[in-house]
Write a structure and sequence with these properties.
alpha/beta, FAD/NAD(P)-binding domain, 11 helices, binds flavin-adenine dinucleotide, FAD-dependent oxidoreductase, FAD/NAD-binding_dom, FAD/NAD-bd_sf, oxidoreductase, NADH-Q_oxidoreductase
Length: 426
């Protein structure tokens, strides 16, 4: 082993950037963060970038700058494989096309590469639907939305959008799109809201299956009031250029089609030198977050599959769970490094603490349930739910920037709302 333990973290999303920042600040290990992108964004905001109600350039964290300030190294590149025997991770660097992949040696490898929507192989989805699983896709969706909007500015015509997936992502995206179109009406096209046909399609019996039934009903009512057509119990069997085809043979016409259902691990995990994977491709980890077949590889966040031994339930693929795992790992690895017994040190088991679930419907409404560890449980709605939703992001920013700069970014965002238009016009 080198003088200082070499910790390589692949994936600088919600979980990975927090681990890199914390271990880098500790200064006791040689920490490298690798990501296929050059900047981090808070994934739960992607639907707002897609709709144009928030601007990504204000919310991005540049990996190079974050690394410089916090004592770690940033290596751009997409993970393409690992050699477990030699303990080396292979990364493909876009700018270095034609050159062999970069190889980085590790003593401990932390995989935090997130997840994607799962189209379950439904015919036509890959060719005809958009997804919003990363910033590039959210920006692409926004560009498509803008084209459809510009085409309808003067001549009229319907703007038909259909979203598959009635979980938090689909519900929040539907509300955000409605909000964006209402705002755009003030900029020269007052009849635009009346020409939007927005359909939300869910195969299960109700929206927001992870939330209590009362919240599902309330969200359904708010969306109906906003003239979003909600189709529950509707199984999509195919997509084509003109829309979605349902199991009962009916068709939902849509020029813009979004797939926001299901969760699966990125394909690259399939080729990782024999590591155990779950049915949806996540790396199976032990309670201490180490992968079952290799204790020098840890997985966390959406790309890890863990059943909490205390509750017997799977840890959900949410930002809340990803942050808790990142904080657990950073705290205990930091302590092990201070004792000098990394990487063989035993890490204590991770236990997920359900602090509640919150869904925010743009400026219209929001609901949440608090876990029993948060003020003894309870419900939130309206403004309090929307503010609590925002708070999870602000806590993440404070974790990355420290209390002073983190609070300043919050204040700057609020000032920006006073200056800039409430919706992207470019
Ligand atoms: C629109 C939307 C809304 C959401 N809203 C909420 C919400 O309100 N509350 C909530 O709790 N959760 C929400 N989620 C889920 C939440 O965003 C995820 O659970 C969370 O981001 C998982 O964190 P992570 O660190 O595991 O992965 P991510 O945050 O997805 O980060 C993965 C990182 O890995 C990088 N990466 C991927 N593949 C490679 C590769 N091959 N090589 C190198 N780097 C790679 C990516 O660039 C990215 O930086 C939402 C998700 C979406 C899409």
């Amino acid at each position: 082993m080198a003088d200082r333990a070499r910790i390589v973290i692949v994936g600088g999303g919600v979980a990975g950037i927090e681990v890199a920042t914390s271990l880098g600040r500790g200064g006791r290990a040689d920490v490298t963060l690798a990501d296929r992108s050059l900047s981090h964004v808070w994934k739960p905001m992607l639907h707002t970038f897609a709709a144009g109600t928030a601007r990504a350039d204000r919310q991005k964290v540049d990996f190079f700058a974050q690394a410089r300030r916090n004592g770690f190294r940033f290596q751009p590149g997409a993970l393409v494989g690992i050699d477990r025997e030699a303990r080396r991770a292979r990364l493909a660097v876009e700018a270095a096309e034609g050159r062999p992949a970069v190889e980085i040696a590790y003593d401990l490898l932390v995989l935090a590469v997130g997840s994607r929507a799962n189209d379950f192989g439904t015919p036509g989805v890959a060719e005809h639907c958009l997804t919003i699983d990363d910033l590039t896709e959210a920006e692409h969706f926004h560009a498509q939305l803008r084209c459809h909007l510009l085409a309808r500015l003067d001549g009229g015509g319907l703007l038909e959008i259909a979203i598959v997936g009635g979980g938090a992502t689909g519900v929040e995206l539907a509300a955000e799109l409605k909000h964006a179109i209402n705002l755009l009406a003030a900029y020269g096209s007052p009849d635009l809201p009346g020409r939007l046909r927005l359909t939300l399609i869910e195969s299960g019996p109700r929206l927001l299956p992870a939330f209590p039934e009362k919240v599902s009903r309330a969200a359904g009512r708010t969306l109906s009031d906003l003239a979003v057509e909600v189709r529950t119990g509707a199984l999509v069997t195919a997509a084509d250029a003109d829309g979605f085809i349902l199991k009962d043979g009916s068709r939902i016409p849509a020029g813009l089609k979004v797939w926001a259902a299901g969760v699966k691990a990125p394909d690259v995990l399939a080729g990782l030198d024999g590591l155990e994977r779950s049915r949806t491709g996540q790396l199976v980890v032990r309670p201490d977050l180490r992968t079952t077949r290799d204790s020098s590889i840890i997985a966390l966040g959406d790309c890890a599959s863990l059943t909490d031994p205390r509750t017997g339930k799977p840890v959900p693929a949410t930002a809340q769970a990803a942050r808790q795992q990142a904080q657990h790992l950073a705290r205990h690895l930091g302590r092990a490094l201070a004792r000098g017994d990394m990487p063989a040190a035993d890490l204590p088991p991770f236990h997920y603490v359900e602090k509640g679930a919150i869904v925010s419907l743009a400026d219209f409404n929001g609901w949440g349930t608090l876990g029993r560890y948060t003020f003894g449980g309870g419900r939130l709605n309206g403004l309090s739910a929307r503010l609590t939703h925002d708070l999870l992001y602000r806590q993440h920013q404070i974790g990355l920037y420290g209390p002073l700069r983190g609070t300043m970014t919050w204040v700057l965002d609020d000032l920006d709302h006073l200056i800039s238009p409430p919706v992207r016009l470019d």
